[in-house]
Specification:
15 strands; about 350 residues; about 30% helix
């Protein structure tokens, strides 16, 4: 256990400290996590090494803050690395505003440097962003929400105060959306539901070109872990086919309470297939459900961003950013483009 002034810092594995992690994490969140969710996150079969928990202790030795690190496989220009993905950053309210989060991150940096565990990667909340930046974590780029509105009727009703008028406007709007989507060439693409570890998706990922990309691994064991055995989210996987060959896939969650689809993963073999595939998905899935909007979150410089805008998605700023530590300044990183979406955050 190391100390900085009167505060002490320590490192443990997740295993054996599950109850402490769950308690401290939930004490500092509006939405509590389950033990099964944290087990899923920190005991993933695809991790290259056991997960770590970095702790802050008060003068009496009690645990008052933490940050979790799980090691996830990422490709950087065709080279496989295991990023130290950070999350569950928590600090009890009584100890905030004392610079403790920054000191915790300095402690983490020192440990990762000494043990060769970087690069580290995180998509933090705004409060953690400031502490990470002050501890030397580099802000790479913001995350952007892209929203495709299918049925704006409910919002129109709130503005117009007339259900009849808003219903008519929504009906017209939805028909225009349908006509617009039909104008997008399908380029011979069809879609089918699939299992996360579908052999065709495996073959697609094996052949996927990763030059000049920073992208999370999507091999079968990871796909099954991420989308097949999640303890609380029931993901749907769609594969896109062209002449019976898988040319991409998409995963999503449907939230019936707010009538929205959230896309967690979307990847195609070629950029010129992005618009046809997304248009087909909206036409065959979005328009056939009781859905008001479809949302996808990506890094601001994502190669699909402009294509989504041309497809009808509206960009909305978010408070999320990508931050990294220990990422080399070599050409391998400098010339590679981030390919990040919601699935890169272990939710």
């Amino acid at each position: 256990m190391n100390s900085m002034d009167e505060w002490k810092f320590s490192i443990t594995p997740y295993k054996g400290f599950e109850k402490d992690v769950l308690r401290l994490r939930n004490d500092n969140r509006e939405r509590p996590a389950s033990r099964s969710l944290l087990d899923w996150r920190y005991e993933a079969p695809e991790s290259s090494r056991p997960s770590l928990i970095f702790w802050v202790h008060d003068k009496q030795g009690g645990r008052v803050g933490m940050a979790g690190v799980a090691f996830r496989p990422y490709w950087v220009n065709r080279q496989l690395y295991h990023f130290a993905v950070t999350g569950d950053i928590s600090l009890n309210k009584a100890f905030r505003g004392k610079g403790l989060a920054r000191k915790l991150f300095y402690f983490m940096n020192e440990y990762m440097d000494k043990n060769g565990l970087s690069p580290a990667f995180v998509i933090p909340n705004p409060a953690a962003q400031r502490s990470l930046s002050s501890a030397g974590w580099k802000r790479q780029q913001p995350m952007i929400n892209h929203v495709f509105y299918i049925n704006p009727g409910e919002k129109a009703s709130q503005l117009l105060k007339s259900k009849a008028i808003s219903f008519c406007l929504a009906t017209i709007y939805k028909r225009l959306v349908s006509l617009w989507l039909k104008m997008i060439p399908s380029k011979g693409i069809s879609l089918e539901h699939a299992d996360p570890d579908d052999p065709q998706i495996e073959m697609f990922w094996r052949d996927f070109q990763r030059e000049n990309l920073i992208i999370r691994d999507r091999s079968p064991v990871i796909m099954k872990w991420r989308y097949g055995i999640h303890p609380s989210n029931n993901f749907t996987v769609i594969k896109f086919l062209k002449q019976s060959v898988c040319v991409g896939f998409l995963t999503y969650l449907e939230n019936k309470a707010i009538k929205a689809i959230s896309i967690y993963d979307f990847i195609m073999s070629r950029k010129n297939l992005v618009q046809p595939a997304m248009g087909l998905f909206i036409r065959q899935v979005g328009l056939n459900k009781d859905i008001n909007s479809i949302r996808i979150t990506q890094n601001s410089n994502h190669s699909y961003s402009g294509i989504l805008s041309r497809t009808g998605f509206v960009r909305r700023n978010s408070d999320s950013v990508i931050q990294t530590y220990g990422m080399s300044k070599t050409d391998e990183y400098a010339n590679s483009v981030w390919f990040i979406n919601s699935s890169d955050k272990d939710t």
